[in-house]
Design a protein that fits this description.
single chain, 269 residues, alpha+beta, seven-stranded mixed beta sheet, five-stranded antiparallel beta sheet, 28% strand, binds biotin
Length: 269
């Protein structure tokens, strides 16, 4: 399908009332939708600008990792937000995007993914996709934020590189249905737009929905910092999505997503 058609195809699946339908940008190939969204935002692109790519050459994950983004099998999407608030009020943005993605994936596939704290979308014990949020702050206010999401859609087991094959899944593998990336992309745009309207007014409900679907809670985990690995138990989430961890010596710490990553004691989850 040629690129102009792909943009129109995605638009045709988005409800006419969704204002972000008119601020959609399609890129057959891009380095990273997040990198380009941050750039466009710095140049003045409006709230609700959505970038979707058929393929990313340098897809980015959290904490400097890469995100495999092969042609035509996944959705690679970023949206620019201009929330006009201090950054402390936006700490739950990744969790809110996670809840929006549970709803979008469930709407098109019938399966509700869960989340592995803080930004991995999972089905069972395998990774379906991930979320990367970034923001630019000036004089104590968020100038703009970008939510980037990648979801594996049509891959089969052998399509993943060996280093992630045992850890990754796709909507096709999980549902045995071939859900088109453009249909999923449209549902993601709608769901993110609706979430943007309730981001502050319904923060409590959003965090509760995240908590209910967070597979990390109650698990034995390892808290990974660049120079240390510390075992603990994931006890709870605070109101901003910080993870409350209890250590074997009885001490407790709330860790933030910017500084640590978490692994299950016996594997990925
Ligand atoms: C992670 O798994 O740590 C997060 C992955 C986020 C990937 C998406 S794909 C669209 C957007 N552009 C990027 O470069 N990254 C995000």
């Amino acid at each position: 399908m040629i690129s102009i058609d792909m943009k129109e195809t995605i638009r045709s699946y988005i409800h006419a009332e969704c204002p972000w339908r008119d601020t959609l940008l399609w890129f057959p190939t891009i380095d990273s939708t997040n990198v380009q969204a941050m750039k466009l935002a710095s140049e003045g692109a409006p709230h609700g600008t959505v970038l979707i790519a058929g393929h990313q050459t340098q897809g980015r994950g959290r904490l400097g990792r890469s995100f495999q983004s092969p042609e035509g099998t996944g959705v690679y999407l970023s949206v620019i937000l201009r929330p006009d608030c201090p950054p402390e009020q936006l700490m739950h943005l990744t969790c809110a995007a996670g809840v929006a993605m549970m709803e979008a994936v469930e709407a098109v596939s019938g399966i509700r993914p869960q989340v592995k704290w803080i930004n991995d979308l999972v089905i069972g014990s395998k990774k379906l996709g991930g979320i990367l949020t970034q923001m630019s702050v000036d004089k104590g206010l968020v100038r703009y934020a970008v939510i980037g999401i990648g979801i594996n859609c049509l891959q089969q087991e052998g399509d993943f590189p060996p280093e992630i094959a045992g850890l990754a899944t796709s909507l096709s593998m999980a549902t045995e249905k071939a859900i088109k990336p453009e249909v999923l992309a449209a549902a993601m745009v709608e769901s993110l737009q609706k979430m943007s309207l309730r981001l502050f007014s319904e923060k409590g409900q959003i965090m509760e929905a995240y908590k209910q679907n967070c597979i990390t809670l109650g698990k034995d985990i390892q808290v990974l910092r660049p120079d240390t690995i510390r075992p603990g138990v994931a006890m709870d989430l605070d109101e901003d999505g910080g993870l409350v961890v209890r250590y074997p010596d009885g001490s407790q710490e709330t860790v933030s997503s910017g500084e640590v990553s978490v692994r299950g004691m016996y594997g990925y989850v």
